[in-house]
Design the sequence.
């Protein structure tokens, strides 16, 4: 017997939209999103596109009124509900452009709920382009199948972050001068949790003392080598996800 083709088709393009999705909602699209669908993915009238808005799950939509530079996508059916992601924040000092972009992309793929840029004393980069970071989060969410976008916080200074730190959230602090091993620490603190990673220049001794003084802080070591900030952020996030996140739920794709 011939296999029933998958529906929605596996090849259906997936796109984040700002509109609120629901039954029969028509989403007019132009600009970059339309360019991607029309010129890159060659979407035609009647084709199926998967849409998500970060709050209403994922919807199959039919392409209508396809023109050269714009089209309408009409939602027909919800294909997935809004997911719940592990309660894990990544607090990262801003680092050079391509590298912080990589951190945003990987954090989204790994299932991080919230990304918080944190300015520290040795931050070489003292500004973040939130629009660009958000674009990387959106692109990663489109690619990896997330239905919920990670929250992107405004940049805060390290003292401000620590002052308002929630009482019930453990702060794993990647300390290049040494700390607990991750397996000791992650298993004992399932969440809510967060990871704090320093900039290229590391934390100052005063900052380190200040972080360690926070009762919710747990200094962790990522081994004997000094990792680049982006490697530290991605590797430790992956380890936490493997111990406490949703990697243990096996789903057949
Ligand atoms: N310039 C610093 C290193 C900074 S590495 C030095 O030479 O000491 C950037 C950030 O990655 C650090 O602030 C820390 O948060 C994290 N990191 C890197 N290697 C680490 C390790 N082995 N253990 C824990 N954290 C590490």
Sequence:
């Amino acid at each position: 017997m011939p296999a029933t083709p998958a529906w929605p088709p596996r090849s259906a393009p997936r796109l984040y939209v700002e509109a609120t999705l629901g039954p029969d909602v028509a989403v007019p699209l132009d600009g970059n999103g339309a360019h991607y669908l029309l010129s890159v993915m060659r979407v035609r009238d009647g084709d199926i596109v998967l849409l998500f808005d970060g709050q209403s799950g994922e919807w199959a939509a039919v392409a209508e009124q396809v023109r050269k530079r714009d089209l309408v996508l009409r939602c027909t059916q919800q294909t997935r509900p809004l997911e719940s992601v592990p309660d894990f924040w990544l607090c990262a000092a801003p680092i050079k452009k391509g590298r912080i972009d990589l951190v945003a992309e990987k954090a989204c793929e790994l299932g991080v709920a919230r990304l918080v840029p944190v300015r520290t004393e040795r931050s070489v980069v003292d500004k973040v382009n939130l629009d660009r970071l958000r674009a990387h989060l959106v692109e990663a969410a489109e690619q990896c199948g997330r239905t919920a976008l990670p929250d992107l916080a405004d940049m805060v200074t390290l003292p401000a972050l620590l002052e308002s730190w929630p009482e019930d959230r453990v702060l794993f602090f990647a300390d290049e001068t040494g700390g607990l091993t991750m397996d000791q620490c992650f298993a004992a603190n399932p969440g809510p949790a967060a990871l704090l990673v320093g900039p290229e220049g590391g934390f100052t001794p005063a900052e380190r003392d200040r972080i360690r003084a926070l009762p919710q802080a747990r200094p962790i070591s990522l081994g004997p080598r000094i990792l680049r900030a982006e490697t530290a952020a991605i590797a430790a996030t992956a380890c936490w996800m493997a111990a406490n996140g949703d990697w243990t739920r096996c789903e057949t794709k």
